Amino acid sequence: MSQTYRHPDLSIDQQHALFTAARRLAEEFTGTFGTETIERFLHTSYDQFAIHGKIPNYLPLLAERFARQRLHALARVEGHSDGRPVVLFLCVHNAGRSQMALGFFQHLAADRALAWSGGSEFAGEINPAAVASMAERGIDIAGEFPKPWTEEIVRAADVVITMGCGDACPVYPGKRYEDWELDDPAGRSVEDVRPIRDEIERRVRRLLDDLDIPAA
């Protein structure tokens, strides 16, 4: 990692973790992106999570995961697509509705399509009631994390599903948009989240039908 991207507020361990993350990403995207692009995406991703006060020891890992997603999105924008459709689920906090939709889509579409999610004001953690209600359906979303959306992620998507983010949701020409009116599971019990979960599953299945993607 170049000296240009050293952050004065990082501990030695955090700096080492980011160096290691940059090397992994450089190996993964060899021939697609150069070191400068990879480091810029990694460090801007880190800064976005740091602003929200997430646990410092996890920030390099979150930054690496989000930077990887952003780089894959940028690659698609620049013409490096494998032909699979991409669906982007957006809500306010990226902690409940969009995460449950992402979980169902990934579970049902398997490797036949890609799905990402994001929030206009992303939260610090996934809604525990959403995690528990999805676990009842055999889908584990506990390993996911709230994140923002970025320009390249929206541009790479073929379908954008919005859920309550209103005017904050990004609009780009040439994309299919759907607005799903769903209750926000924030602050609700698992019992109260179940009907929201079931409605999300119904809509995801309908979306897969529309995209001619067989559900697993």
UniProtKB/TrEMBL annotation:
UniProt superkingdom: Bacteria
Keywords: Arsenical resistance, Oxidoreductase
A GO molecular-function descriptor: arsenate reductase (thioredoxin) activity
Span of domain Phosphotyrosine protein phosphatase I: 85-210
PANTHER family per record: ARSENATE REDUCTASE
EC number: 1.20.4.4
Pfam families on file: LMWPc, Phosphatase-like_N
Name of the protein: Arsenate reductase ArsC
